[in-house]
Design goal:
278 residues; alpha+beta; three-stranded antiparallel sheet
């Protein structure tokens, strides 16, 4: 038995003359980031596409020497997955990690370096990936600048986002940041709503215009519409982006959501914009 690394996770493999190597259900589940029961259920549901002796083996105690594996004490049979089976499984498990592990397994098949992949080789490959992503960042940055994204913060965030979509490498996260820190003079649309609701400078009608029907909490969607109708922002590929009119009052930033683990991209505003729209 030998150990390979996938994203700094140790994966124990069993070398096999017929199938190159085998993985237990436990190790496959570890690679795909799911439970063992999830792998077993996937095998049951897709039994017509996951074929014994091709995609997986059911090894008995008496077959240990034949397949080059050792079953745990008191275990009479155990399922082992072949390289083909690992890749086939990956098409049924929908997640970004699953895609990466499937690709990793497929590379092992195509490149035939499964047993020779050492931590040093893994680090070398990671470095090459980062260097490639860095070159991509420069290409995106130049291209986006040419098409009109000239604000420094927005250009960096948009370029990083494009690299992440292409390579799954997020330089902002690698830098140990949850996002680009928002300057204190800028506020999210929700924060602007809260400010309006709590200030004596605004009428009850204005406060209601950025609140829920019950007037018990802020409603960012309403303020976004007000900003749009006044020509300060527009929707671009699903994100609110400032128009030329709104640029001097705003920044486009990347942050970790306050309400989930997701990364969010949004426009933040100076308080002065409220004088222009309300």
């Amino acid at each position: 038995m030998q150990t390979l690394q996938f994203e700094y996770e140790d994966i124990e493999i069993h070398q096999n003359n017929t199938f190159d190597f085998l993985l237990t259900t436990k190790e496959v589940a570890k690679g795909y980031g799911v439970s063992e029961s999830n792998i077993r259920e996937t095998k049951r549901v897709h039994k017509d596409e996951l074929i014994e002796n091709k995609h997986f083996l059911v090894v008995r105690k008496s077959d240990e020497q034949k397949f080059g594996v050792v079953l745990p004490p008191k275990v009479r049979t155990q399922t082992f997955w072949t390289k083909r089976g690992i890749v086939r499984l990956g098409f049924f498990i929908k997640s970004e990690r699953a895609k990466r592990f499937r690709d990793w397994s497929e590379d092992l098949i195509l490149d035939s370096y499964s047993i020779s992949q050492t931590p040093e080789n893994h680090l070398k490959k990671r470095t090459e990936d980062l260097e490639f992503a860095g070159r991509q960042f420069e290409v995106f940055e130049k291209t986006f600048f040419k098409i009109g994204i000239t604000k420094k913060e927005e250009l960096a965030i948009t370029s990083n986002r494009a690299v992440k979509n292409e390579t799954e490498i997020d330089f902002i996260k690698l830098a140990g940041k949850e996002g680009i820190e928002t300057d204190t003079k800028f506020r999210t649309v929700t924060d602007l709503c809260e400010f309006i609701r709590g200030s004596d400078d605004f009428s009850e009608e204005q406060k209601l215009s950025v609140s829920t029907k019950k007037n018990d909490k802020p409603r960012a969607e309403k303020l976004n519409i007000i900003l749009r109708d006044n020509g300060f922002q527009e929707k671009v590929d699903g994100d609110w982006k400032a128009t030329e009119k709104g640029e001097k009052f705003s920044q486009f930033v990347q942050n970790k959501s306050k309400y989930s683990a997701k990364t969010v991209y949004h426009t933040v505003w100076k308080l002065e914009v409220l004088k222009e729209i309300l």
